[in-house]
Every structure is written in C-alpha cells, then in structure tokens.
## 1
Amino acid sequence: MPEMDAIQAAKVLIEADLRGIDSHGVARLSGYIRLKEAGRANMNAAAKIIHETPSTATLDADQGLGLVVAPKAMDIAIEKAKQVGTGWVAIQNSNHFGIAAYHAMMALPHNMIGISMTNASPLVAPTHSKERMLGTNPICVAIPAGKHLPFVLDMATSAAANGKLEIAQRMGKSLPNDWVQTKDGGASNDANELKNGGSLLPLGGHKGYGLAAMVDILSGVLSGANFGPWVPPFVAFLNPLPNLPGKGIGHFLGAMRVDAFRSADEFTEQMDVWISRFKEASRVQAEQEVFIPGELEFRLKEERLNSGIPLHPSVWDDLQQVAVKFGLNL
Amino acid sequence: MPEMDAIQAAKVLIEADLRGIDSHGVARLSGYIRLKEAGRANMNAAAKIIHETPSTATLDADQGLGLVVAPKAMDIAIEKAKQVGTGWVAIQNSNHFGIAAYHAMMALPHNMIGISMTNASPLVAPTHSKERMLGTNPICVAIPAGKHLPFVLDMATSAAANGKLEIAQRMGKSLPNDWVQTKDGGASNDANELKNGGSLLPLGGHKGYGLAAMVDILSGVLSGANFGPWVPPFVAFLNPLPNLPGKGIGHFLGAMRVDAFRSADEFTEQMDVWISRFKEASRVQAEQEVFIPGELEFRLKEERLNSGIPLHPSVWDDLQQVAVKFGLNL
C-alpha cells in the first residue's frame, strides 16, 4: 500500500496499544492482511466524495482500510467545520477502522468536539432476540478542555466488548451476568458462549440495543454501507452474506467547532470547572477515585510511552510470522 | 403567557401522555406553575440567538419554559439544515423541556434525522461516587422510514428514570439491582432510596456515566447553561445552589437532512429493509416480539387517541386544583 497510508494505519494501531486497547492494536495487523489476501480489502484504495453539502459529505472508501480512510474523512469534517461551524461525514465501502477514539480525537487540536462511530461484525442480539444482528458498535465523543486533559468517551454499545471475553477466556474466569446469552437466549456466564452460537448482550438491556441500532443506521444506512446482520465480518475466514444491501462496513464522523457555540476560551475554562468538580465528587470508598472518561487511557499512554507496550506472547508470535512473510527483520 | 406559547407547551405535555410517558405529561403542569410562582420561569420569555454560524446557533431562552423554546430552537436547526445540510442549536437559560422525543421528531416530516438532549436536576452518581452529580440526561434520536413507522430512540442515560421508581413506590415493589444506591454508595433495592439521600445509578455502569456526562457537557457547558450538580432542580421547593457557573438548564438539539448524505428515497427504502429485518430477528420466546425503538410508543399513541388518556387520580386532583386557581371549569 502507499507508504503514507501504511504510516497512517500503523499510527492508529499503535495509538490503540498506547491507550491500553490491546485488542485493537498491532494484535490485529495480521487480521487486516488476511482481509487483503481474501480480496476484501483494497490496499490501493482511492476514497472519493460521492455526495456533499456545506456541512456534510458521504465518502466511498473504495474497499480500503477504515484505519486509512477514517482519518481522511475526519480531515474533511474538520475542514467543513472551519467553514460552516460543523462537519459530518458518512462513509461506505470501508473496513474496520480501529479505535474510534483516534478519529474523534483528531478534532481536539482544532478546538473542536470530535464524534466517531462505526458498525461492526454482528455479535449482539437485540432485546428479546437470540440472533446476532448488531456489532459492538462503538461511540466516541472527544471534547477539549483547558488545563485539564480532554474528555474522551469511547465505548462499545454492548455490555462488554469481545476483548473482555477473550481476557476472561485466557484466565478461565466466568463472566458477570448480562454480558452474553446462550444460542437459545438463556442466561450464561460462560466466556466461551460465542463459540457455542451464543450472542453478546446490549449495554443495560433495551437502551443499549437502541444505541447500537442508532450507530448502525447512521454508519450503515445513511452512508449506503451494509447494516445489521449483513455487516461483513472482520475475520477473513467468514464470508460476507449473499445479496448484500450495501457496500462494505460504514462509519459516521463529525466535528463541531467549539466557537460555533460560544467563545473557545470561555468553553475550555468551563470544561476545566466541569472536570475539577467531577474529580472532587464524594467517593464511595476513600481510596477509589472518580475518573473522567478517557483519563485512564491518557495515564496508560504516558506510562507506555515511557516503559514500552507489553505484548502478549501470541501477538509477538503473530507479528514475527508477518515479518517473515514480508521478509522483514523484527 | 402568550396564547401561542401556551398552546405549544400544552402540545408537548399531551404528546408525552399520548406516548405513555405519563411522568412527563399533564402530571407536570402544576410543577411548571410552581416554577413560575417561585420566580424561576419567565412566561413572557423572548428567546434570542446570541451566537451563530451557518450550521449552528446558541439560544438564550430568557428563563422561559423548555417546552416552548425547544420547539423554536428545533425550527432554527431545521432551517439551517435546509440551507447547509445540518443544523445544531445549544440552549442556555432554559427550564425543563418535557419529553425529548417531541423535539427530535419535529425533524421527521422534513425527511431529517432529529436529535435532542437535555441536562436535568442532579440525581445520578458517577461511577465510584455517592454524590448526585448528573441528571437522568436523556438522548433522543428520531430517524424517518418509508412505509414503516419512524425509528425513535428516547432514553434516559440512567439505569431507570425517576418515573419508574415512583411506579415501584406506588406498588410497594422492590427495585432490580443497579438502579439505585444508598447515600453511602451501598447496594439497594429500595424504591424510596432517593428520599433517604441515595442516588440513581447510570445505565450499565461507567458507560452510562460517560453518556450522561456527554449530554451534560453538550447541553450545559457548550451552551453556557449550568452543568453537573449546579443544574437547577425542577421542583420549586428546592432552591438552585449559590454561585452558579451558568444560566438555567441547557439543551442541545440537531437536525440532519437525510439527502445531505444520500437520496432520501434510497434512504427511506433502506430504513424499511432495516426495520423489516429487525422485526424478523429470531425470538427468544415465540410470543415475545422484537421491538423497534419507538414502536411501543406509537402503538400506545394510536390506542390513546382512540380511547383517551387514563389519568392517575392524584394527577386529576392536581389538575382540578390548577383549574380552581385560574378560575377555569374542568
């Protein structure tokens, strides 16, 4: 793939590892390569705008990696926000875009609020259903502050993302209630339930189902991508369903200039008041502090920038195999 | 108040009752009157735009009712969306705006996606805190379909809204886990826990806290309204805190033209596919259907338009007292 695009994709993966979202970091590199080998990802993709207004655009990602096209789309959203206050970009014909936070946080240096979401491989059952109809469909909202670190909410709309199940599997632990259900829709605490045909449960019941559905519609239906059970799986060993209603997977991104609503200085000052006040909220246990969304990830990034990123032995093996395949020294 | 504004406020309250959100309907009428009597709501408010770009505006609601100013703000958002694709309005210096769905659904006849959210009286504790720092801060997203009814997600970001606790109180029932905590942050199933100084819990733990915080920041900090624990209480017998950082309560509304992203016909056709497919999702129990967000409320509205709105005896008494006070025959 073009060197600039490769660098961009690597940046998104490494940012995930730095922030402690190990499931979305370099551990996925071989997965993207398998998508290419299966003919499902185009490494020479040329994304293009297929629909546009002053505050919106729709992008055809040309089957490229979301890792590459989402930052380009975010640049467009930011440019539109500079012109008319806000910018919103829907993306079709894409693939997995990594962590949502990378894209939303691109707005922060511009004193803009960044928004990103994506649909994903169906694993989550709607309320009262036992069928996998929705992805873990994350939502990220990044909001600049002044002297404090930014507010960065980055959350799956399922009760738990797949990565947390994998950790429980490795440790042989049972899951909390309401994370998964059996293939018949029964209660389960088994971390291996997905392998038995079970499904993930939405965050907090029907509200999480509604949020995941909203993300699916904005990312998939509005952009012209696939949606619901038709979203092509990330894993290359599963084929997309026949008769797809759209193209690839979809994302939805936005940028809002803070000073399109009030002076940026006033806003960042008040955000500092907001953050300080929430840090001071009275604690249930004196030693357990209250966190601002994103705070733990910023701390982990600082730590990992100093001491390095610990990789699981299986991830390291996987990277070595990639290196051998491409004739690189690791 | 001006007759047009009174009619608008009544429409929002009655729509709540029609949709089955009885806690936000005419049951609240006397509460709004008490706010006026306490000098906290201005019935002759003249909302005005205090900041503007082609796709955004900030409104000062002049201490009026959210019931009146939010529809006016939504008209502005819709007008901006007609011009530049999307429109976004932040509102400061307002009061309770009723059900979020009324405002977001105003976008639907224009083939636009409507978004509405508001902050509210602090009742919800952040994760690891025992302090009431956030409101039930609802989010509504209304999305048009073709032959099907629209998708209308309207949800509090707390595990349960206050109205559900009141129902449990009346019926003498205990609450599910994770709805409330004691004043010390301990587990509780007591529907009266708020009276004991307890707090509501966010939807599904820290993610619900993050969503409620996002709503608070977009509605409160971005608009110049109050936020967090400073949001003035709806009940007139509680005074706002001293040294408020902003004005009144805040809302955040948006409208996105569907055809700012793809042809409206294509979109509504695909929304029909989305809805049909989700209605057909395989069921856990054959007799329990899968619902589309908003579907139950549309059904209830149809039923209540035919058979009338049942009012709790205490609500009827309350309305009669209002009628006597204003010399009306009820």
## 2
Amino acid sequence: MSNIVSEKMYALGSKRSEIRELFEYGKKRIAEVGAENVYDFSLGNPSVPAPDCVKNTLAKLVSETDPVALHGYTSAQGDAGVRQACADYVKNTHGCDCSADDFYMTCGAAASLTITLNALSKEGDEVIVLAPFFPEYTVFITQAGMKCVQVKCSEEDFQIDFAALEAAINEHTKAIIINSPNNPSGAVFSEDTIKKLAEMLEGAQKKYNRSIFIIADEPYRELVYDADIKVPFIPNYYNNTIVCYSFSKSLSLPGERIGYILVPPKACDNRDIYFAVCGAGRALGYVCAPSLFQKIVPECIGKTADISIYKKNRDLLCNALSEYGYKVVRPDGAFYLFVKALEEDSRAFCEKAKAHDLLIVASDSFGFPGYARISYCVSTEMIERALPAFKALAEEYNK
Amino acid sequence: MSNIVSEKMYALGSKRSEIRELFEYGKKRIAEVGAENVYDFSLGNPSVPAPDCVKNTLAKLVSETDPVALHGYTSAQGDAGVRQACADYVKNTHGCDCSADDFYMTCGAAASLTITLNALSKEGDEVIVLAPFFPEYTVFITQAGMKCVQVKCSEEDFQIDFAALEAAINEHTKAIIINSPNNPSGAVFSEDTIKKLAEMLEGAQKKYNRSIFIIADEPYRELVYDADIKVPFIPNYYNNTIVCYSFSKSLSLPGERIGYILVPPKACDNRDIYFAVCGAGRALGYVCAPSLFQKIVPECIGKTADISIYKKNRDLLCNALSEYGYKVVRPDGAFYLFVKALEEDSRAFCEKAKAHDLLIVASDSFGFPGYARISYCVSTEMIERALPAFKALAEEYNK
C-alpha cells in the first residue's frame, strides 16, 4: 500500500467483506461453468420482486408529478408528508406514540446505523453486539469512534445469553444493537426475551447512572413466516430505544437505499438525539434520502413482497438439510439459515462447499465460528438444483 | 444539550446551515404572506425540469425491467455497465484515458467529497479550499480528520490568488478542492488558471516530496452560458486529480443523490486510492448508489436540463442589479450571483433584505464576508417580481 491514503480505508476497501468476496467469485464462476451449475447462497439480495404498489406508484409519480418537485431536494430529515406517513403507520401498527418530527429518512439500514452511531458516540463509549451479527456492525461502530463488544448468543436457539450479556455491560456501555429477525441466524427474539432485556437494561442504567440505548436494527421486521411468531416493537418495552429501519427487504428494494431512523418521544433527551442524528447525517455527506423512493413510502409502507416464497424456501432447505445430517435451527424470520459446519473450521468447511459450487458464507465474520450462513432469498428452483450438492458435501464428511 | 450525544454532531444538527435555515424560514414566511410575496433565492435547487430522457428512461426501466434486477444491490462501486458508460463519456468528451474500474458511483456530490476526503485522510493532513466556497467543505474536511485551510480568491474576478495560494501550501498539504464553475461566485477557472495551478502544484510536490491532489468538485460542469467559456477538464492538466461529479444540477435531480468519483489512471497510486475510496464508502454506510438512478445514467449522461433559462435569469438579474447600483461580477457558470453587500456586515445586509422578503444568503459562511449569494435557479417570473424589492433595498442605502 502507498503511504498516501488512509490505512484504515485502504484496508476496508482492498479486503472486501467475505460475503461480497464470495458473491464476486460466484459471478466469475457463473461465467466459467454457467449459471445452472453455480449455487450462490452468498448475498442477502431479495429474490422476490417488489410488490405491485412499488411499480404502480413509481409509474404514477414519474408520469404525473412535476419533475422539479419529484426529484428536488427534500428537507435533510426527509419530506414532511413521508415522515407523517411513517409516523401514522408506526402509531397505528404498534401503538407507539410518535410524530413526523421523530423520523429521519435515510439511505437504508447501513446509513441508519452509521448516522445513529455517530450521533451517540462519545469518547470511551462501548456498543454491544450479539453474535452472530451482521459483520459490518464492527466497521460502523469503530468508524464512529466506539468500541465494539461482542456477546455470544446461546448456541441452542440463538436467543440472548443473559448471563453473558450482564457480564459485558459496564460503565462504558452506550448501546446494544438488537437485530431481530436476525441476520444470520434468522432468530426472532420473543416478547419474554425483550421484556427480560428491558429489565436488565433498566437495572444497568440505574447501576451505572447513565443512559443505555437499544439500537433496534429492523430491516427484517416483516419477514416472519409463522402466524404465531410476533416481533415485539421494542420502544413499547424499553424507552431508550432508537429504531433503525430499512425498506430494502420488506419491499425488495435493497439497491434503492431507503429507510428511516425513529427517535421515539419517550427516549430520554429525544430532541437532542434527533438533532445529533441530523448533524451526523450532514457530516457523513447524506444530504437527503433519495427523493423518488421517499415518495413511494406513503403508498407502500406496511406492504411486503410475496414472502410466502421465502417460507417455502426455508422449509425446503431445513427439511432437506436435516435429512442429510446437518444440524439446523429452524429460523423464524429473515431469509437466512445458520447451519453448523461439518468440521470445526467453518472457513475450511465453506471451501469444501465451494468445490461443489455451493457458495455459503463462513460464520467467522459474524462473530460466531463453526457455522455457515445460507441465504435462501434465491429461487426455489436453484435450491432444488443445489440439494444434491448439499447431500454430496455431507457425504464427504460421513465417509 | 444533554451529555448523552456527540457534541460535534449535536452542534452540526441543531444549528442548520445558514442556507437551510433561510430556506426553512422562507417556507414559513410563504405560509404567512403567500408565495407571491416571498422572493426565495436561498437554495441551489434546480428550477428547470429534468430533461425528457430522464422521465422516458425512468418510465421504460420501471415498466420493462425485472424489478429484482432493477432495484437490487449493485456492486458497491456501482453497476459495471453504468461505470462503463461514464468511462466512455469521459473518454470521448475530454480525451481522458480511463476505464470502468476507475469510477465509483456515489450518492451525489456530498458523498463523492466525504468518501474521497476520508479515503485520503492521514494524520496532520491539510486541505486547501478557495474562498468563497461551499460551506459544507469545512464540515466534510474536519469530519474526515483533516485541517481546512482557507485561501481567498481575488475580489475582482474570483479567480485564484496565486500568491495567497502559494503561501498556504506547506509540507502538510494533501489536497486542494477546486470548484469550477463555482458555488457561490459563478466563476469559471480559465485554462490559463488551471495550467498555472498545475505548474504550482507540480513544484510544490517536488519541494515537499509528497503527492498533492486536486479534488475537482464538478456538479456545475455543464452549467455555463456563453459559447466562449470552456471548463477545462483538470485531469488533462494535472495527473493527481480526483474528480467528484454529481448529476444533481446537470440533470436537475438533486434529491435523487447520484454522482461518481473518478480516480484517473494517471493519478499516482491510483489503485490504492480507488481501494481507499471503496473502504471509505463502506465505513460511512454507503452500500451502493441508488440503483434505479444509476441505471438512467447510460441514457442521460451528457444531456442537460434546459439551461437557457438560467442564462436568461442571470442576464435579467445582473443587468437590473447593476442598474440599481449593486456591484456585480457577471458569473460565467453555475446558477449563483455573488453580489457585494451594501454595507460591510453582510449578515446585517441580508437581514435588511429579509425585511423585503428577499431571501439571500450572507457570504460569511462561504468564507468571504461582505457579499451575498443569490441563487437564480428560480422562475424568471419570481425574479421579475423581486426586482422592485432589490431596488427598494438599494434605495435604503442611498438615502
């Protein structure tokens, strides 16, 4: 590396995330052996088209709205009508008291997180993440100047290990990121779990005489597959919650970068936090969230892509892999299967999978070695084609 | 302020930029006295609709493209075909040798700048800005961990004051931001100026034995109004140039956040810089530039909104204001008029203008006190309505 550029940025840019690396490998491999012979389970790129309301609203806006208004700057925090629609939806759906002025529209979940973390960051602060976790959390937390503290979830069901969590909380703890439904485990934290978490954090706030926030990273909120599974709305259980939402997965719009931050009125110093969010958005160069995609929100909020396909994929994969001898915890939500590697070294396991052109992500970068993430936001047909490869891989270990 | 949030972010978010502040005031004032009685020249929000190719391409993409591909993640650096279209255009238009792999698509000019600055930043580095300058430069530079050094342009014509620039360059200088056509002065740096600048920087690189970059911030490149005005393409004159481009103004899409960074092959260590750009984009939470708006680029690059309206506005305003006794340097490009305040204190001057419901921005935050910025990307009709107010304001000072 030259001595001209930032070492940190060079390191982040020259070494792609393992997920992206595998995805790029898949594209090359497809060129070599054909798409029908590669089973790419690497990326969390929704495979189900956006719901019709997206196409219809886009077409209507483009044909009927004055382009100067349609494509012009919105306020930095987002169009007022769009924020009102978000507030109405959250109020009606979750019974959470909030107004348009509590919402800040963002360029998707990653922006929601970087902006929130930069807004909260003070010297010495620590942020707890629950492993397994989305690997970019560590990048976002350290870039915001805070320390990332990892706490492992219970291996049986990927729920919170409260003893481990309690041991990690200290006088520097500023926040804990909760990602439920979870990437990569698919686990959904139950109401009981959230109540227990809230109680523990209330105690910690008193003990350390400081505010501790839950940052609820919720791009998968709508992606749950069984009627009895509810995703608790965390601000209803714990006041100091900041919600980081994205429409990427619910509306199948990951490339369009649209989401929001909600700082509910019950969060302490909520106006100060909101202003700091505005400041962080400004400092990071986010002028406003993309205007056209902001404007589809009032028509599309609460709708989802056809997620029955993900449910079908989940069941197909879970059943087949269990049958082949893989250890699988059936995921309640998101579109990932977190399967135990068939040897201790998950990277070695995923390399062996690669030899079958099965592209699955080693779990090490999720802070939870020994597993692999299988994204099932793919075509059912590809899963069907891939099953013999999964079987052959298992057989390699059973010889 | 509470002691919970980042002081820096709170300060940035609670105190809006003066421009945004004035714009919000304008919206309130319109509600009070009616749009026909407020003359809002505060914002650089294009008033001319996007060219037809934008609407047509959007409609075609939305109706004909598979939504999964259309709205899916692109590679972090941008869709390969889109980057190829940018490379072809730059090669054909400016004769600059470059390829798709030298382009990184961004969420607009602010993102181009924050990402580039974070990519280059090393401890102790300084970045020179030429006053008058876009106020957010100081935010972006300090947020990236560098020192912002201001050098004033010549007051006669807003061209570079080379003696002042030479005095500011030292062993810490990492880059200089060149914004031509300029916001807020409208000045375009001539080929002679760019040649002289290149020569001076070549000398400085030798003298201090380090690489010094020009960061060419070029959202206004296409907005020039006279046939004899050319905007030199800086990489053709100085190798260590990084181009930060945005389609916001040329295509009248400021809210959609689409632009690019070009690290030309002739820039030293260009691969290292490119990787650091990828890393900075990742660290700041930019997953990819908005997918749909990336995909209009191949059809729309090189086209512009109907800029003859801006020319008409410029001429109307320049002629009238000169007649009323204002000191005006006729701008060659962008859509701003930088007019000398009629008293020493430009903020006091702009407050007096506000009493006439003339919303113009005091120049202090542009690093060049004593002036006001008048954005003429407004309707010609509003300018006509505003002229009596400009006249009355001038007469207040001539009593």
